[in-house]
Write a structure and sequence with these properties.
By secondary structure, the protein is α/β, with parallel strands linked by helices. It is built from five helices and five strands, in the order αβαβαβαββα. The protein has a five-stranded mixed sheet, sandwiched between helices. The radius of gyration is 13 Å and the shape is globular. It starts with a helix and ends with a helix. The relative contact order is 0.20.
Length: 110
């Protein structure tokens, strides 16, 4: 599976670690992921996101291949409440952050 993901995602050419990998599955989550990725990039945060209709399980593997420091896990239920889940990929701890505080939180923790 990992080799297939590497081929599909062309990760081998990506040599640097990334700051954030955004995980999403539903259409609503994908729209939010695109908006959020643009805002993060405007703040010089290196970000990648799921563009290949992968399951959450596969996305966790891809995030590990990218050596992502943090994962943003978008879930429809949380988005309706204005919350975004951030997981520290090294400590394996998750927190929920208000949507409007995500960039500041990441800038303070990267």
């Amino acid at each position: 599976i990992i080799l297939k993901l590497k081929e599909t995602m062309n990760i081998e050419k990506f040599k640097n670690d990334i700051d954030v990998y955004i995980m999403c599955v539903s259409e609503e989550e994908k729209i939010k992921a695109l908006q959020l990725s643009q805002d993060l990039r405007l703040n010089n945060i290196i970000v990648e996101l799921n563009n290949n209709d992968l399951s959450f399980k596969s996305q966790f593997k891809v995030a590990d291949l990218y050596h992502a420091k943090f994962l943003i896990i978008l879930k429809d239920d949380d988005l309706q409440k204005g919350l975004i889940t951030i997981k520290d990929n090294s400590l394996k701890e998750e927190i929920k952050v208000d949507e409007c505080e995500v960039i500041d939180w990441l800038l303070g923790n990267i």
